[in-house]
Amino acid sequence: MAAPGDEEGAEGPRCHRRPTAMLDVPFLPFCAFLGTLGLLCVAMVGAWCQHWRGGFSLDGSSRTFNWHPVLMVTGLVVLYGAAALVYRIPNTWSGPKLPWKVLHGSLALGAFVLSVLGLAAVFRFHNSQGTPNMYSLHSWMGLATVLLFSCQWAAGFGAFLLPWAPAWLRALYKPIHVFFGSSILMLSVASCVSGINEKLFFSLKNGTTAYKLLPAEAVFANTLGLLILIFGVLVVGALARPSWKRPDSDSPDSRQ
Asked: How many C-beta atoms lie closer than 10 Å to residue 63's C-beta?
């Protein structure tokens, strides 16, 4: 017959573990929610530019500029976030890594291409309107993010996809690659949020309701900025969660 103290001691840890298990969100439902949030961000930035900013064009006018926020949010935040989470999918934890490496690299490359097109749109608009380029903190941060992203992709391609990279080099570079992956995502979020705020300051002034009076466009765009921030934080949180990380394995069928 067990002593009361033993029963309490056995029950204590059991009660302590139960709330932890209840808070353990499965990855796939979380990923579905995150995907919905990302699509919502893309839809909202498109609706903002179409409804309040006049739509889209390639004629060098402000409608050409409107491609810039859409492409940046889609590529530099949403698609890049999807690329970062590829190795958190449980199906990637066994079998060959090469197909998942290709998927990860392809999503990141797609994000980079969209980002470059977004930069081209804003430079075309500035040049056609006689507006100076690269004068704001937003522009500095955005260009630095894209340049860092290009270096990250090239280094990752050379270290993990090309067959001649030695195992010790991959092991040495992997934590650096992971660190800069999360850092670039947060820089992307900061660039997009600052760009939304800058656009509102420039647009909501003469002839419109001032930004400080919080018109409907300001409410909509501010909400978009918050959703982008939440998306980035959730992706970084998922990357940092130990139970969702791909377990390292030295088995021959898990290495390429």
From this structure: 18
Q: What pLDDT shows up at residue 224?
A: 98
- Cβ neighbours of residue 198 closer than 8 Å, sequence gap 6 or more: 136, 138
CA 57 → CA 50, 62, 65, 197, 217, distances in Å? Answer: 11, 8, 8, 22, 21
Residue 13: inside a domain: no
CA distances from 35 to 30, 32, 81, 102, 207 (A): 9, 5, 10, 20, 38
pLDDT for 92? 78
In the block, tokens 């977004």 appear at 118
Q: What number of residues does the chain have?
A: 256
169 belongs to a structural domain: yes
The CATH number of whichever domain residue 131 belongs to comes to: 1.20.120.1770
Residue type, 7: E
Name the more confident of 249 and 101: 101
Least confident of 37-51, 106-120, 158-172, 216-230: 158-172
Kind and range of the H or E run holding 15:
helix 4-22
Q: What separation, in Å, do the N-terminal and C-terminal C-alpha atoms of the chain show?
A: 56
